[in-house]
Structures are given as C-alpha cells and as structure tokens.
Amino acid sequence: MELLEKIIIVGLVLVPSLGWTVTSTAWAMPDVRLAIDESAAPGTMTVLGCEYRNYTNSSKQWRYCEGTFVYDGTGEAVRVRAYDRADPGDVYAARITAERDKTVQRDLKGVLAPLGEAFASLCVLGALLTGLMCFLPVETLWPFVSAACLVPAMGLVGWVASQIVSNT
Question: Given phi > 0 = left and psi -120 to 50 = alpha, else beta, which region is 113?
Fold first, then answer.
C-alpha cells in the first residue's frame, strides 16, 4: 500500500469522526462551563411545565421546559428555560446564565448530562479506529492498538454515566 493510499484511508476515517467528536463536545461546553462556574449566580429552579416544540421547518420535536429561578442572594424570581429532562414540579439547585435565559443544574448532573453525545461520539471514533486498523499493514498498527481500545472504553463509560445521571 502506498503512502498516498494510507493517507487517504486515514483521512476518510479519522477526519469526519474527529470533527463529529469536537462538534458535539463544543456544543455541550457552555452548559458544562455554567454548571461549574463559581461566578455564575446560584439559586433554586422550580420547573413549572414542559411541552414539545417543533424545530423550524421540520417535523422533529424537542422538549422545552420552563420554570422559575429564585436567586439565593436576593430572592428575586425569574422565569427561564429549565433542564429539558426535568418534570413539572421538580426543584433543583441551579445556576443561571448572565443573559438570564437558561439554567443548568449545579451538581454532577449538570456537568455529565450535556456530555452524553460527546461520549457517544468517542465510541464511534474508537470503532472507526478499529476499522482503520484492518486496512493498515501490521508494522503500522502498534500506535493505533491502544487508542482503538482506550477511546471506545472511555466513551462507553462516559456515555453510560451521563445517561444514568441525566435520567435520575
């Protein structure tokens, strides 16, 4: 196999999977940062109601929850978007964005729940690394063996943890 063929195979497999992993992680990072940001205003969130809304120009739906956020320091109440998997009547410790439009839980659940898709993409990346090893000669396999085993294992553990935490 020529060098150019190897580069093409590696590029066709790794570039899209790495892009998907980075994109899904970057999408979740504002919620993760808000959950662990000590400078964000803490308070208590009470979920008032949830409904399903359609995406723009699509028949697919997403769950939208609203509630009342009460600041710990001032006691001021603000109506904002709540955690999507919450149920009406749920009360949880939360942090609010500076724009006062969204809250996230301020515990481990607030950190792990948004990362479920990022962990799932690590599983896919590991599967693609394993598939890539089938096309490479034996002498070039050794750098990929540990990564092909470790990446999906980390992804699976993280994904299971995020699913357990987000559904409790």
Answer: alpha
